[in-house]
Design goal:
Layout: H1 8-19, H2 25-28, H3 37-50, H4 56-68, H5 74-78, H6 82-91, H7 98-116, H8 121-126
């Protein structure tokens, strides 16, 4: 009978062992992976940037540029100006429609602040712990 992984920490350890390096992608590129609102929001921004076409290093650089500019939380990014976001993203090497990306990140930050009071951990509760229900929140 196969053994079951009992806790979230056990699952994390298993995933890291399977990855081989002992650290996940975000951790390998300097992102802290912790259960706090700031870290989770930064990982969300990294995910958005990685979803774009192009060199993943540009996405990583862009994701690092946001907290470097002082936007290390949804609340701080949501209060930033569009022009500051555009400039920061361009300076970090982002290409293509940087204005649309800046708008997307600003809207995302405002949504996280508005719906979850800046804390993505509230998303799970809002979805009633149903991963399929998270889009309806």
């Amino acid at each position: 009978m196969p053994t079951t992984v009992a806790t979230i920490e056990d699952r994390k350890r298993l995933a890291r062992r399977l990855a081989g390096s002992g650290r996940g992608f975000a951790e390998q590129y300097g992102f802290r992976v912790t259960n706090n609102p700031s870290s989770l929001f930064q990982l969300l921004c990294l995910s958005v940037l990685l979803a774009r076409r192009g060199d993943f290093r540009r996405a990583v650089d862009g994701a690092h540029a946001l907290p470097d500019a002082g936007w290390d939380s949804a609340a701080r990014l949501s209060s930033s100006s569009r022009s500051d976001r555009v400039r920061t993203l361009r300076d970090s090497g982002q290409r293509g429609d940087v204005e649309a990306l800046a708008d997307l990140l600003g809207e995302l930050a405002r949504a996280v602040v508005g719906r979850y009071r800046g804390d993505l951990r509230r998303l799970r509760s809002a979805a009633r712990r149903d991963p399929a229900g998270s889009g309806r929140c």
